[in-house]
UniProtKB/TrEMBL annotation:
Source organism of the structure: Geobacillus genomosp. 3
Protein name (database record): Membrane protein
Keywords carried by this UniProt record: Membrane, Transmembrane, Transmembrane helix
Location of the YdbS-like PH domain: 62-141, 250-330, 399-467
Signal peptide (residue range): none
Membrane spanning residue stretches: 20-38, 44-63, 176-197, 223-246, 354-372, 378-402
UniProt-listed PANTHER family: UPF0699 TRANSMEMBRANE PROTEIN YDBS, UPF0699 TRANSMEMBRANE PROTEIN YDBT
Pfam families in UniProt: bPH_2
Length: 479
């Protein structure tokens, strides 16, 4: 009989704090809309009731939430008004993510995300908001033992005092700083800021504010607005740098039997465990700045939810690594993948199509600029050769590679992406061609793996090569 346990009381603060953080902007809008520039105590009735309801529901949810496990299964019971009971076999748990947030660290506990088969992508099957570190380690050991038992593999009698394996990959503070400088998180900060300001449009007169600026600066408002935009972008870039430094501090990758363990974080420490069997592919990203200095980043396509807090199915294995080290790390963590295969280039007849694609986006703006800003607008036509050169570079970088058990696709320029997938993990292979492509015997190929929607593609591959890849996949199905 499993003894039922409750979460640490800090789980109440964690859950209620998260809900209240999401309610701040709506509650401010409600207060501002109801006051009509004259605040009274009645304007705070609805927000106060919402806060009280959130706190009460948080306490009741904590009281009604219980969990327990034994050598075979994990049992979770939750629900305030409707009681829900879930029983998950331990061998069906595909991934675990252990996080130490600010509240958890103050109380000496951790937060555990557990992913199992049959759940909605992007959502954790079970989330234990606050359990002790020892309980988290015990649960991980039970999951490992249940998997070994299911696979009928002998295992040591006790793993309690086993030392953690040495780190295969770590990031120094210098590399964390480089990751933060070269990551593209600025746009996300600007979008979040814009979304927040758009919520205040009802009681902040933006149009009147712009008119006042134009009248005050007497024709120099363009320079003022331009300087303001520059300051906002620079500040957003600084915020993105700090976010990435906090996220990737103390980054380490370890291989523990058939599980890849990734730990990272400064204020919020996180540990992600990914079984090798759940890895559906490997993606190498190279933006133009990192490629200039010989760096890249490596991600894993994980058949499940977003264990690392990112998109579903994407887990960062190496946020920054020298390209000459990628092959050794991949072969150490995932021995079935071969990143040393030679890529086949695209046919030469596809080069003109790659050069013409950027021109389709540049011709109309160049003509408009030449007409509106005469005579200096004609200088916009100088962008056309630059666009053709970009298309030629994309053509030379694109390619594909095929081996008996692996398919690799490469595309992109400013953000070059190389995807490696094993034959048994390919969910679908698609070859499509437009009328213009058919005239030059070209086609676009795309490969999908789990989770659904994870796809890699290359444009303007030779039709004969696409047939070879299709037969390669059909060979797996016949077998």
């Amino acid at each position: 009989m499993m003894s039922k346990r409750r979460l640490h009381p800090v789980a109440i603060l964690s859950g209620v704090g998260k809900e209240l953080k999401n309610m701040i902007v709506p509650l401010l809008v409600i207060i501002a809309a109801g006051s009509r520039n004259r605040f009274s105590w009645r304007d705070f009735i609805v927000p106060l009731a919402a806060v009280v309801y959130t706190v009460v529901m948080g306490v009741l949810s904590w009281i009604r939430f219980t969990y327990a496990w034994d050598e075979d299964r994990l049992l979770v019971e939750e629900g305030v008004f409707v009681r829900k009971r879930r029983s998950i076999p331990l061998e069906r748990i595909h991934g675990m993510s252990v996080t130490e947030g600010v509240w958890q660290r103050m109380a000496g506990v951790v937060q555990v995300h557990i992913e199992a088969a049959g759940h909605v992508l992007g959502e954790a099957e079970v989330m234990l908001r606050a359990i002790s570190r020892e309980e988290a380690r015990q649960l991980q050991r039970c999951v490992e033992q249940a998997k070994r038992k299911a696979e009928t593999i002998d295992h040591p009698a006790s793993n309690a005092n086993r030392c953690p394996p040495p780190a295969l990959f770590t990031l120094s503070m210098k590399e964390v700083w480089i990751v933060s400088l070269t990551s593209g998180g600025t746009l996300g900060v600007v979008v979040a800021l814009g979304a927040f300001l758009s919520q205040l449009v009802d009681f902040i007169p933006y149009e009147a504010l712009v008119r006042d600026i134009q009248s005050t600066w007497n024709g120099h408002s363009r320079w003022f607005l331009g300087g303001f935009v520059f300051v906002v972008l620079f500040a957003a870039y600084g915020v993105a740098i700090v976010q990435n430094m906090v996220r990737y501090a103390s980054f380490a990758v370890r291989k523990q039997e058939d599980t890849i363990v990734i730990t990272r974080g400064w204020l919020e420490r996180k540990s992600v465990s990914i079984p090798v069997a759940r890895v559906q592919g490997v993606v190498i990203h190279e933006n133009w700045l990192r490629r200039l200095f010989g760096y890249a980043s490596v991600s894993l396509i994980h058949a499940g939810g977003g264990l690392d807090g990112g998109e579903a199915g994407d887990v960062v294995l190496c946020p920054l690594i020298k390209k000459n080290r990628v092959a050794s790390i991949m072969q150490t963590c995932l021995s079935e993948y071969d990143p040393t295969v030679a890529f086949h280039p695209l046919p030469k007849r596809a080069k003109s199509r790659y050069m013409l694609r950027p021109l389709c986006w540049l011709v109309i703006p160049a003509v408009l600029a030449a007409y509106v800003e005469r005579p200096w607008g004609v200088m916009a036509f100088l962008l056309l050769p630059f666009g053709a050169w970009i298309g030629a570079c994309r053509f030379h970088l694109a390619g594909w590679a095929l081996s008996p058990g692996q398919l690799a696709l490469r595309s992109g320029l400013f953000r070059q992406t190389t995807t490696y997938v094993l034959k048994r993990h390919v969910q679908s292979f698609q070859s499509s061609a437009t009328w213009w492509q058919k005239r030059k015997r070209l086609t676009t190929i795309s490969v999908s793996v789990m989770p659904l929607g994870t796809r890699a593609r290359v444009v303007d591959v030779d039709e004969a090569n696409a047939v070879v890849m299709s037969r390669w996949l059909e060979g797996k199905r016949k077998k």
